[in-house]
TrEMBL record:
This is Threonylcarbamoyl-AMP synthase. Its main location: cytoplasm. It comes from Leptospira bandrabouensis. Required for the formation of a threonylcarbamoyl group on adenosine at position 37 (t(6)A37) in tRNAs that read codons beginning with adenine. It catalyses: L-threonine + hydrogencarbonate + ATP = L-threonylcarbamoyladenylate + diphosphate + H2O. Gene3D superfamilies: DHBP synthase, Threonylcarbamoyl-AMP synthase, C-terminal domain. PANTHER family: SUA5 (PTHR17490), THREONYLCARBAMOYL-AMP SYNTHASE (PTHR17490:SF16). Belongs to the SUA5 family. Transmembrane segments: none annotated.
Length: 346
């Protein structure tokens, strides 16, 4: 199959209208999309990804008004979207238009991407566009065009070239159906921020890996029960001390990769080395033997680089990826959740 790779939003909107599948970037990760009004096209997305059929898709809308035509938004939903959208927030709402994919569900996951060009593209398709993250099921989501092309050229009808994802982890998912609003997937918009509008928000224990199981053991969000975000290499989540120790003992830099803060701290504050110029130069020299080392200074930077780093490690046949735990505070919640999932063995 020939894949049209282009920044022409009209051409790529036409493809969606014709029932084709198009990959597009959002501020979180790349999505692989089809018209929400076209069941056969949506089912092709499942086939291409190898995605389990019981895991529904997020419908991407151009505006709050468009969401309201398809779903019961309510006061709370409107306030949330007014505060956090366009942006990395997905709401689960009762569905008004029963013809939308997936037809068998009474609810729809909705979100408005941040980039105005992407919203214009969705508008041109006649919208909405249903899209899971563009990756093979179980693997990390993709955040780089080169990775998208490598995996999907020849498998999808189009790839829209626009600004690449910057947040790097998938949207925060909040369910507004059911008795209490519930956080189904943590992301860049954090539970503390959500609680300003949703004081009774139910937040699962974020130290434990989701799945979020309801009383009947049916997952609230089907996607939470599957293995996720995992590269082929084994991911190890390490405390700051373990991380530093692993640089010195036990791991061969030829087939091990590291992503974390600690060296930045060392160089910046000199708290482990003395602060003399010679000592700093020496520790930098020490780092040069690590071919696969990604240094980050904030949780946000960590999240934005993580998935592309996983991809690069797999390409280089790295066996083990050691990830320093994120810093407590801003950006911790979603990143910690993805790292825990990536480090799960099954
Ligand atoms: O940032 C993102 O959300 C990206 C970009 C492309 O928008 N998309 C994404 O989609 O991460 P996906 O399919 O990988 O994750 C969607 C999550 C899944 O966990 C799925 O189970 C849940 O949303 N979901 C979708 N529809 C649902 C529904 N009606 N009820 C409960 N959960 C739902
Ligand atoms: Mg996904």
């Amino acid at each position: 199959m020939k894949t049209l790779i282009s920044s022409d939003v009209r051409l790529l909107a036409n493809l969606i209208q014709e029932g084709k599948v198009v990959i597009f970037p959002t501020e979180t990760v790349y999505g692989i999309g089809a018209s929400t009004k076209n069941e056969a096209a949506c089912l092709r997305v499942y086939e291409i990804k190898g995605r389990p059929k019981d895991n529904p898709l997020i419908a991407h809308f151009p505006s709050i008004e468009a969401i309201e035509e398809s779903c019961v938004l309510g006061n709370l939903g409107r306030k949330l979207l007014e505060k956090f959208s366009p942006g990395p927030l997905t709401l689960i709402l009762p569905k008004k238009d029963k013809s939308l994919f997936p037809k068998e569900l009474d609810t729809l996951a909705v979100r408005i991407p941040k980039n105005p060009v992407i919203r214009e593209w969705i508008r041109l398709t006649g919208g909405p566009v249903s899209a899971p993250s563009a990756n093979l099921s179980g693997r990390p989501s993709l955040t780089k065009l080169t990775d998208v092309v490598r995996y999907f050229e020849g498998k999808v009808d189009g790839i829209l070239i626009e600004e690449e994802p910057s947040f790097g982890i998938e949207s925060t998912v909040v369910s507004l159906v059911g008795e209490h609003p519930t956080l189904l997937r943590p992301g860049s918009i954090e539970s503390e921020e959500l609680k300003t509008l949703l004081p009774d928000l139910v937040v699962p224990n974020l130290f434990e890996t989701l799945p979020v199981l309801s009383v009947s053991h049916v997952p609230l969000s089907p996607g939470t029960k599957y293995k996720h975000y995992a590269p082929s290499a084994q991911v190890i989540l390490a405390s700051r001390d373990e991380f530093i120790h692993s640089l010195e003992v036990g791991f061969d830099p030829k087939d091990t990769a590291w992503i974390g803060f600690s060296i930045a701290d060392k160089l910046g504050k000199g708290n482990l080395f003395s602060e003399t110029k010679e000592a700093v130069a020496k520790s930098k020299e020490g780092l040069s033997k690590f071919d696969h080392f990604s240094l980050v200074s904030t949780n946000e930077e960590y999240a934005s680089k993580l998935y592309a780093f996983f991809e690069a490690c797999d390409l280089s046949k790295i066996q083990t990826i050691i990830c320093e735990t994120p810093k407590l505070g801003r950006g911790w919640e979603g990143l910690r959740n993805r790292l825990e999932k990536a480090s799960r063995r099954n």
